Amino acid sequence: MIPGAPALLLLFVLVNTCLSQQTGEACFSKFKKGKEDFVLDTEESVKHGATFISAPNLSREKDCVAACCKEPKCNLAFMKRGDEENPIESCFLLDCLYMTKYVCRFARQLGFTSYILDSVYEKNLKHGPKQIPDAPPVANGGPDIVVQPNDAVTLNGIQSKDDKGIVTYVWQMLSPYPFARTKFPDQVVVSNLTAGRYKFNLTVIDTIGQSDSTVVTVLVLTPEQSKDHCLVPKKVGPCRGSFPRWYYNAASEKCETFVFGGCRQNKNNYLTKEECAMACNDLNLGLPCPEASVEKCGAPCSPEDFTCTNGCCLDPNLQCDSVPQCSDGSDEHDCELETCTETPDTGTCRESSTKWYYDPYQEDCFPFNYSGCGGNENKFDTKNYCQSFCRGVTSVTALKVLAVICILVFLALVGYFFVRRRISQHLPVLVIQNTTAEGETDTAVYKSTTNLI
Q1: In terms of pTM, does the model score above 0.90?
Q2: How far apart are CA 236 and CA 242, in angstroms?
Q3: Which helix (H) or strand (E) holds 166?
Q4: Of 56, 145, 394, 422, whose CB neighbour count within 10 A is largest?
Q5: Which domains are delineated in the chain?
Q6: Residue 36 DSSP one-character state
Q7: Which residue has better confidence, 448 or 380?
Q8: Which residues form each disulfide bond in the chain (predicted)?
Q9: Among 444, 148, 150, 155, which residue's Cα sits nearest to residue 278?
Q10: Are the C-beta atoms of 219 and 242 separated by less than 8 Å?
Q11: At 263, which helix (H) or strand (E)?
Q12: Which of 112, 73, 77, 75 is nearest to 91 (CA)?
């Protein structure tokens, strides 16, 4: 035996033991002990991407953590506690990261302990789950309302929203007028309103005191306004959209449906039957008498008027209603041009007859086979009538009509997205007087009928 060999062997064992202890302590210090008595939800964890590495047969917590140190992908040492002789009954090593995201799930259960790698804890668990800030509420008092004098009006804020809940609804009339509250906190009832325009402000407050406000307008119609809103005929308009709307039929004294083309509507145009009924029920004006002449000549037209080619003025709601009111017919002429730019359509039936269509690019009329029903208006019985009706319509006209249609579609889309965005924006409170000056238009009140549905 080499002299001094036992001493060298003892020294080697001591040094190795010290290094192992230091390595074990250094490894253990890289892990943070998790909350006691939480068991790993294996099914949920693996479903979200956690990976089981191994289950070494060890009896001490430090040995289980040390085993995790030796595995490059291990970041969780999870163990079931045992008795005094064997402090842990079982040891499990896992990788709780999937694509750098922490995916392990735990559930409360006695008898379990876990250690997680410090770097993983600091990045994913130290601050807990991110707190989503409480968003402010969004007040919604519903659309503007049109009613007859002395009708009762019910206003409610049930469509208002908040992520944590609304605790207070406050209705306030922006001009003095009594109103009654109901058993619902978001609702008030106003009755016996006389003709005029009334503004109601709704303020909603959420659980932490954040608030939002909106304004609802109630237009109580005068007899003259009732004629415009209820007694004029339905107006499809010149555009070729297809939007279900409601109008008041003065002959049947009922609200009825019709298909609105999408532009140049009159005021007898409502989104819902309820809106129509509120505006026109209990109407006692009788059927409208036909007017001998509606164009006004001899004075300058206002910016809102339609100016006839002869210089006379016309209510813009009467343009493109299929009835010439300008003595020169100019209020319907531009509407007819669109007919001459449509492509020929044979229709949907089985008959066969010869019709004539106008081609704006060749500026002439040509025959085509028509099935007897359906199709569009670019069909004429004779070539002479076709040429007379569409005289002056060129490819430039067709492009203008196409441009107008594109603009209308664009404006409709912009209006639709604007309405959608309003639910996420804070609306300022508008203070407006409750009466309308003579001659002031009702366009702002009636804007809800022009939105897409």
Answers
A1: no
A2: 9
A3: strand 166-173
A4: 145
A5: 28-124 (3.50.4.10), 295-331 (4.10.400.10)
A6: S
A7: 380
A8: 301-313, 308-326, 320-335
A9: 148
A10: no
A11: none
A12: 77
In the numeric block, the tokens 């109630």 are attached to: 218
Please give the structure tokens belonging to residue 429.
């409170």
* DSSP one-letter code for 51: E
d(CA 405, CA 263): 10
Residue position matching structure tokens 């036909």 = 290
Backbone angles phi, psi at 417, to 5 degrees: -70, -30
Contact 367, 344 (CB under 8 A): no
| In the block, residue with structure tokens 């492009």 | 399
Q: Higher model confidence: residue 392 or residue 235?
A: 235
Element (H, E) at 11: helix 5-28
Strands (DSSP E) contained in 58-165 are: 76-81, 88-95, 97-98, 101-102, 106-108, 112-117, 145-147, 153-156
**Residue 409: is its pLDDT beyond 80?**
no
What is the distance of C-alpha 249 from the center of its chain? 32
3-state secondary structure the chain: CCCCHHHHHHHHHHHHHHHHHHHHHHHHCCEEECCCCEEECHHHHHHCCCEEEECCCCCCHHHHHHHHHCCCCCCEEEEEECCCCCCEEEEEEEECEECCEECCCEEECCCEEEEEEHHHHHHHCCCCCCCCCCCCCECCCCCCEEECCCCCEEEECCCCECCCCEEEEEEEECCCCCCEECCCCCEEEECCCCCEEEEEEEEEEECCCCEEEEEEEEEECCHHHHHHHHHCCCCCCCCCCCEEEEEEECCCCEEEEEEECCCCCCCCCECCHHHHHHHHCCCCCCCCCCCCCCCECCCCCCCCCEECCCCCEECHHHCCCCCCCCCCCHHHHHHHHHHCCCCCCCCCCCCCEEEEEEECCCCEEEEEEECCCCCCCCCECCHHHHHHHCCCCCHHHHHHHHHHHHHHHHHHHHHHHHHHHHCCCCCCCCCCCCCCCCCCCCCCCCHHHHCCC
Give the number of residues written for the chain.
Answer: 453
* Element (DSSP H or E) covering residue 86: none
The per-residue pLDDT for range 287-316, each reduced to its tens digit, is 454 444 478 888 888 887 888 888 899 887
- Mean predicted confidence (pLDDT) in 128-143: 79
**pLDDT band for position 166 (50/70/90)?**
very high
Q: In whole angstroms, what is the distance from residue 75 CA to residue 54 CA?
A: 12
The CA-atom distances, in angstroms, between 354 and each of 336, 383, 390 are 22, 11, 18
Residue ranges with strand state E in 228-362: 243-249, 254-260, 306-307, 313-314, 353-359
**Cα separation of 348 and 344, whole Å?**
13
Q: For position 98, what pLDDT does the model report?
A: 83
